Amino acid sequence: MKPWLVCIIFLAPAILRAAEGEPFRYKGSGYGYFTAGACQHSYTIVGGGGGAEGFLWRGLTAGIEGGYQSFTEGGGWGTVYFPVGYHAVDRNKAAKWDPFVSFAVGVLAGGGGGAGATAHFGGGTTYWFRKRVGVRMEFRIHGYTADEVALQGRVGIAFR
Questions:
Q1: What residue spans define the domains of the chain?
Q2: What is the pTM of this model?
Q3: What is the mean pLDDT of the chain?
Q4: d(CA 159, CA 15)
Q5: Using CA atoms, how far apart are residues 131 and 134, in angstroms rounded to an integer?
Q6: Where are the alpha helices (H) located in 21-138, listed in sequence order?
Q7: Using 50, 70 and 90 to split pLDDT, how confident is the model at 10?
Q8: Torsion angles phi and psi, residue 99, rounded to 5
Q9: What percentage of the chain exceeds 90 in pLDDT?
Q10: What is the mean predicted confidence (pLDDT) over 99-109?
Q11: DSSP codes of every residue in 4-22
């Protein structure tokens, strides 16, 4: 599946929700992202995708995320994650900065037909330059297998 198509699928509900006029209450967000990083062998990894998360209680969130990543030398894989996170934000006020941490488990599927478990831990912030549109910046540590780890930075657009 093309990365831009994944972004459209994940962002459509958030874009439609942003068009509604109601009193402000931060209920969740949708986002699309571009990611770049490297594995422990120093191979460059690039990719993209999108996701959505909703608040469960106070700053605690749960969501779903999907994307596609590949080495610049070739060979790619798709991922689906189920993240749990915490946002240090007052949900009833439209704050400019929204810092967060997240942890997720998921599944990755490679081009060769193989699949396996994966997980990540990371954190970042969203800068809301409009009431419902922001820039999401994040850093993550991905564990693909016991022997494969990658460090990645991510930048994207978020909607709430």
A1: 3-159
A2: 0.82
A3: 88
A4: 7
A5: 8
A6: none
A7: low
A8: -75, 150
A9: 63
A10: 96
A11: HHHHHHHHHHHHHHHTS--
